[in-house]
Amino acid sequence: MPSAKDAPADGRLFVLDLSGSRVFSIKPDGSDERTLVRECASHPDGIFVDAAAGHIYWTDMGVFDRNDGRIERADLDGGNRTVIIPEGATFTPKQIALDKAHGKLYWCDREGMRVMRANLDGSNIETLVERGRGDADRADQTRWCVGIAVDAQKGKLYWTQKGPSKGGKGRIFRANLDLPPGQTAANRSDIELLFDHLPEPIDLEIDREHHTLYWTDRGDPPKGNSVSRYSMDADTRQGDASEILLTHLMEGIGISLDVAHDRMFLTDFAGSIYSARLDGSEKRILAQGEGNLTGIAYVETPAAAA
Fold first, then answer.
1. What is the pLDDT confidence band of residue 1, given thresholds at 50, 70 and 90?
2. Out of 34, 40, 115, 219, which could bridge 224 as a Cys pair, Cβ 3.0 to 4.6 Å?
3. Domain count, the chain
4. In what order do the strands lie in the sheet with 55-60?
């Protein structure tokens, strides 16, 4: 497998800074930081970059006790900014994922207690999973849906329900991309619990080449403030098949993989960007003091955006 030193020179990281309400990009060596979008409402959280189409998508959680979250899109240079999922259509959108082949945008809605999707232009909004409804259920943080990953080739959806802060009640689930016939988002029977009693799992990412699921966890050590992975082909009935790859993050949030060059990129809420090999070794800090960082996406960008 190629090493990180063989990585393409035009790759870039796109990062969300919650405290600065901005989208910025930076080279994978930590140089050439550029702020692309400012005044991202109040709480930008999840980001996905479709380099081929020239688009950045990101979620904004809004005010947590109001139904005012939204999803926006802009060009790679931050221009042509537009709201595609308006306020009122999703409560607190978190991590976001794209299924480009089928033209679908997926996200988790934390206080909405839902997993949702829409067309890439924001039309045809659907609720795929509903874990609760109303203020009483919303107060139960074990119902909150946070991280999401889509394996369109296998027809599967993965998401986290983080539970209370550092509470040891976090879980990771899997279900089919489409609702079973005759069932609803609230009563679908195909939901599989993969992991339970995690500290506080946040964002997910899939290595499709090796069919492996990665996630960040911002809960307490020894399992928290970490990155873990799991073979999606493993039989969870045979016991916990996950492994903790690296630790000592300061409230780990975002994760993005560059499988071709054996590396992952991470953010934490203390404002650092990290890189490491996919096995967790050779961890290093690329940038520090960047604010409260949330989502991150690595892409090999067109030369014009590099």
1. very low
2. 219
3. 1
4. 44-50, 55-60, 69-75, 82-90
